[in-house]
Design brief:
Elements: H1 2-20, E1 23-26, E2 32-35, E3 40-42, E4 45-49, E5 55-59, H2 65-73, H3 137-149, E6 155-159, E7 165-171, H4 175-195, E8 203-209, E9 215-221, H5 223-231, H6 236-243
Helix pairs in contact: 3-4, 4-5
Amino acid sequence: MKTRLALAGLAAVLVAAQAQAVYVVILKSGGRVVAREKYQVNGANAVFRTKTGTYTAVPLSQVDVAATERVNSLGLGDAQLLDWVDKQTRIVPTPTPTQPIARLGRVRPGVASPEADAARPTPTPGVMFRDKHFHDAGIDQAFQQGLESYHLYLYRTSQGTLPEYLFIEIQVNGQPETLKALQAVCSTYKLLNEKAPQRVPGRVEMQMINESGKEAGVFRLSAADAEEFVSGKVTAESFFVQHVIF
């Protein structure tokens, strides 16, 4: 009777794990991290969303690719955690934590929405990641390189709400990284508009995600907006408050 109950319990664990569609990343050091889906390769890093929803990046050289593929091919999902249930693997995300975004002017923590700003219009719905690439791979790659030149590695890109819009989702850890992400995107946008104006996106839609997985600001920027930011006509803090939508 006890044996049957134990088997039934294990079966329930396996079914629940498969329903969560988890993916186990195995490191060469022996540590293991549970992700929501298979990691994506960004340059020299393996980037994935953890089980709690936080974007994390580890050097690809530290991932045991063969072991990772072998374990996940078994289809056991989260049940693999039974082997190391008492072991905690610490992964230090890139970049390092900075000041909380709540210090950015009069911004509420978590949602990055200016207080007492009820007059701001509601944005067009659907600003989100899509399983469809932006139509110009060269422009997409240029924005990725622009982000990485500012040491921002936790991002993903896709087509935006319209085919001519580029969407970028970036994980930021505090006010300095939020402003740095704006600087990276606007600088790249301005440069491309000068070099190849016929190819640049009609708009760049940005979604900031903080380290806990919550939204930290949404933007829909034009080339003129990027020019304004890079020119220094307004402060970075003012630009954030003027252009953030929620």
